[in-house]
Amino acid sequence: MTEILINGNFLCRNLTGIERFAWEICKRIDSLLSSSDRVAILVPANAPKVPSYARIAVIRSDKEARSFPFWDLGVFAKTCRRRNACALSFSNTAPLGKTCGIAFIHDVYAKDFPNDFISFYDKLIGAYSCLNYRNICKNARFVCTVSNFSKKQIIDYYGVPEEKIRVIYDGFEHILRIRADENILKKLGLKSGEFYFTLGSLSLRKNLKWIMKHAELYPNDFFVISGTMLKNVVPNELEKIKTLENIILAGYLSDEEVKALMQNCKAFVFPSYFEGFGLPPLEALACGAPVVVSNAASLPEIYGSCAHYIDPFKPAVDLDALLAEPVSSPVPLFEKYSLDNSAKKLYALFKEV
């Protein structure tokens, strides 16, 4: 088998959906490998935590991944060429040209919503994202994505042949091994079942505007928002939200605290208007919470009849009445969106390289 070299850039990023997916899939890939398989990961010198694998070879670079273009297009690409390896990149980026290898495009947000990238720095991020979309779609041996919605967008925007694309879903199992930290309820002054919870990076597409407008219209609905502000596309609503008495901006919370809030919230609310998959509602369902999601992008595909739906641009919704409507059991989702199954699907792809 051709050597597969994993881009370890995700080890240097904040642990959001894409990075967690990469961590979890690599761990499961490691358990699937045979003694004859050749799989390695190139780890940047500044990775705060280096994974320990049984069969994936860990290669420690003396270069840091502080500038991702420098790492992805330089250090990682050069190492792939030197080792004659097929690159595997999880983070919407990949080496240029034929060194591209196997690459994930989780979504094409920058292509679909260019006006969300407003400042000069935002525009650089958007341009770099679109450069990577084009490169991956043109040069990758296989393009992997996480939903049929994203697959269709990749085909429509970039003309990628359908047989070159693999849909490899995200999954929820990691949330099951986390022990909830109930102390967060006391810390934030919360009572079980009396608040709505939402989670995600505080970027425009996560649509804090919906939460803000709804909270203004329904002052008795109480919200807790957890998420890390990104350097780019931070919503203007953030400052206004801080003035509303029925919203708590909790900032970054640990996995243990997040699980406790998911287990104790009245419902998990996810008004994002663009997602390639949208993992947090699946995590919330696994914690026993009802979920309210927007009827946009991939979310209806992923959650089907197991979620309550809102229009992401219409905040005037009676959430109590909405939650009273029946939904299906989420059990079929847990069977479909399995990290174990996704790792097996990706491992099988190695054999086709």
In short:
This protein has helices at about 15-30, 70-85, 110, 120-140, 150-160, 185-190, 210-215, 235-240, 255-265, 280-285, 300-305, 320-325, 330-335, 340-350; strands at about 5, 40-45, 55-60, 85-90, 100-105, 140-145, 165, 195-200, 225, 245-250, 265-270, 290-295, 310. With about 350 residues, the chain is of the alpha/beta class.
Helix content: 25-40%
Radius of gyration: 20 Å
State mean pLDDT (0 to 100 scale).
94
Number of individual domains: 2
CATH class of the largest domain: Alpha Beta
| Number of beta strands | 13
Which structural class fits the helix and strand makeup? Answer: alpha/beta
What percentage of amino acids are in beta strands? 5-15%
Q: What would the CATH topology of the largest domain be?
A: Rossmann fold
Model description:
This protein has 353 residues and is of the alpha/beta class. The chain is globular, with a radius of gyration of 20 Å. Helix content is 38%, strand content 14%. α1 crosses α14 (339-350). It has helices spanning 17-32, 68-83, 109-112, 120-139, 148-158, 183-188, 208-217, 237-241, 255-264, 280-286, 299-303, 319-324, 331-336, 339-350, and strands at residues 4-7, 39-43, 57-60, 86-89, 102-104, 142-145, 165-167, 196-199, 223-226, 247-251, 267-270, 291-294, 308-310. The strands form 2 sheets. The protein has a 7-stranded parallel beta sheet with strand order 3-2-1-4-5-6-7. Strands 10-9-8-11-12-13 form a 6-stranded parallel beta sheet, sandwiched between helices.
